[in-house]
């Protein structure tokens, strides 16, 4: 039943195609083509991962009892179904383009009353960031075991690092993020009501603190680099990929 419920959107396949095209361009000797390829790898790959992140939430909810996600189109991997396309796709891509912290992206609306247990609710919330972690692991492993041109390996390394950042960010137990969603079913009534009130503004406060308070930002990225090392990422190549990626936007 689960397999038959999944219908992969052509738009999602187009995003994958953009990422693959970027990989091809990144292998060329021409510097402009190589940098352009890295940009396509990162932007196309990040947009693809946003869809997979939200699909992770949706397919876990579907298996946990909320069949409404199928009628809402969440099992199609179509980015148009994951809330507002500007706030959920374009704005996060802009943040990635300028080298900032990747925003959580989209969201799927789950009927929590249909889920079978509090454990299922927690797993639905964790499915998204765990998808990013697995993607980061797979990409980092591919870079480590496959000999590839430096343009391709650096672009993929930066994309893998972005997946790890997304995992570390989303796993934080802050209202509005998936980490809080994982613990919310186990909280007391007053705590959950406070979380509901804090949900709209808590992530914004977090981003301001990460950007504006140096030691907090350093601690966050220190944790992200630690996790990146754990999954086998190459920090030097990730930094090179980020530098080449940002160079096309004139931010070096």
From TrEMBL:
<dbReference type="GO" id="GO:0008237">
    <property type="term" value="F:metallopeptidase activity"/>
</dbReference>
<dbReference type="InterPro" id="IPR052348">
    <property type="entry name" value="Metallopeptidase_M50B"/>
</dbReference>
<feature type="transmembrane region" description="Helical">
    <location>
        <begin position="158"/>
        <end position="183"/>
    </location>
</feature>
<keyword id="KW-1003">Cell membrane</keyword>
<dbReference type="GO" id="GO:0006508">
    <property type="term" value="P:proteolysis"/>
</dbReference>
<protein>
    <submittedName>
        <fullName>Zn-dependent protease</fullName>
    </submittedName>
</protein>
<keyword id="KW-0378">Hydrolase</keyword>
<dbReference type="InterPro" id="IPR044537">
    <property type="entry name" value="Rip2-like"/>
</dbReference>
<dbReference type="GO" id="GO:0005886">
    <property type="term" value="C:plasma membrane"/>
</dbReference>
<keyword id="KW-0862">Zinc</keyword>
<feature type="transmembrane region" description="Helical">
    <location>
        <begin position="204"/>
        <end position="228"/>
    </location>
</feature>
<keyword id="KW-1133">Transmembrane helix</keyword>
<keyword id="KW-0482">Metalloprotease</keyword>
<keyword id="KW-0645">Protease</keyword>
<keyword id="KW-0812">Transmembrane</keyword>
<feature type="transmembrane region" description="Helical">
    <location>
        <begin position="130"/>
        <end position="152"/>
    </location>
</feature>
<keyword id="KW-0479">Metal-binding</keyword>
<dbReference type="GO" id="GO:0046872">
    <property type="term" value="F:metal ion binding"/>
</dbReference>
<comment type="similarity">
    <text>Belongs to the peptidase M50B family.</text>
</comment>
<feature type="transmembrane region" description="Helical">
    <location>
        <begin position="86"/>
        <end position="110"/>
    </location>
</feature>
<keyword id="KW-0472">Membrane</keyword>
């Amino acid at each position: 039943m689960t397999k038959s419920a999944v219908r992969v959107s052509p738009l999602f396949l187009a995003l994958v195609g953009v990422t693959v095209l970027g990989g091809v361009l990144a292998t060329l000797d021409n510097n402009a083509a190589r940098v352009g390829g890295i940009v396509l790898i990162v932007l196309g790959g990040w947009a693809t991962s946003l869809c997979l992140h939200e699909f992770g939430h949706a397919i876990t909810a579907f298996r946990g009892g909320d069949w409404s996600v199928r009628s809402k189109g969440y099992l199609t991997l179509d980015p148009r179904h994951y809330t507002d396309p500007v706030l959920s796709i374009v704005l996060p891509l802009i943040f990635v383009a300028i080298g900032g912290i990747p925003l959580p992206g989209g969201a799927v609306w789950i009927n929590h009353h249909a889920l079978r247990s509090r454990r299922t609710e927690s797993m639905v919330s964790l499915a998204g960031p765990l998808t990013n972690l697995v993607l980061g692991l797979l990409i980092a492993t591919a870079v480590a075991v496959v000999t590839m041109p430096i343009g391709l390996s650096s672009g993929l390394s930066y994309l893998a690092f972005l997946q790890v950042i997304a995992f570390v960010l989303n796993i934080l137990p802050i209202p509005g993020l998936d980490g809080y969603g994982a613990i919310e079913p186990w909280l007391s009534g007053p705590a959950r009501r406070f979380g509901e009130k804090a949900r709209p503004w808590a992530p914004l406060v977090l981003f301001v603190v990460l950007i504006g308070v140096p030691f907090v930002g350093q601690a966050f990225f220190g944790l992200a680099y630690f996790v990146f090392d754990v999954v086998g990422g190459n920090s030097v190549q990730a930094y090179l990929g980020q530098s080449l990626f940002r160079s096309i936007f004139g931010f070096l």
